Amino acid sequence: MSNESLALYLFLVTVSDADGLSFYSDAAIARYLKQTPQRLGQSRLELCKAGFVAYSRPLYQVLSLRQSVGALPEAPCEHQQPRRNDSDLLPIGAILRQAFGGAQ
Fold first, then answer.
1. Structurally, how many domains does the chain consist of?
2. What is the mean pLDDT of each run of 10 residues along the chain (104 residues)?
3. pTM over 0.90
4. Which ranges constitute the DSSP H helices of the chain?
């Protein structure tokens, strides 16, 4: 995954509400992350394909990361409603530990 995609993921984790939803516009996100609109679209697609976020313009939703990140299906990206299921949510510390192989 590219650095720009990881930056977008961290941004979305930081600004999303309790349901993982972010209402920031693409223009605002691109400005904060200093990405072109095209690069932001590529970053979003990478995150959707990896199952980290769902996107239905104008909403982003950070999805829970399960124990086996590789087993996540591709997340919806556009034209589908973000899911809202609190039973799948993990604390950010657990997500980061998984992403970095359990390192503290």
1. 1
2. 94 93 94 95 93 90 69 56 52 68 58
3. no
4. 3-15, 26-33, 37-50, 92-99
The answer as to whether 40 is a domain residue is yes
Residue 32 CA from chain centroid, whole number: 16
Distance in angstroms (rounded) separating the CA atoms of residues 75 and 61: 10
pLDDT of residue 57: 87
Per the structure, the complete domain to which residue 46 belongs is given by 3-99
pLDDT at 67: 41
Would the CA dihedral through 83, 86, 91, 96 be positive or negative? negative
CATH of the domain at 62: 1.10.10.10
